[in-house]
Amino acid sequence: MQLGTRWALGATPPTGLPQVVEIAVKAVEEDLAGLDTDTSTWRWTLTWLESKPVIELDDGTVIRFNPTDDSATITQPATEVEDDEDWI
Predict the structure, then answer these.
(1) Strand, coil or helix: what is 55?
(2) How many domains would you assign to the chain?
(3) pTM for the full model?
(4) Is residue 40 one of the residues assigned to a domain?
């Protein structure tokens, strides 16, 4: 059994993560750096499911590892689009 952990956005990820997952974490953090959003209190949460890392950011972004392809999938939270035409 592997225990999960939490770490601050921008801090060094925990050891033992596949390299492709670390690359995905850095890509998300680089994208967030370009936004005008206060992320100073955001943290990553690492959970191990069936010996595979699943990482979730406080905003709902999730990174999952696929060992078959040695790939990481980034799923970002859906954003609500405001519709000015409420005629339906």
Answers:
(1) strand
(2) 1
(3) 0.85
(4) yes
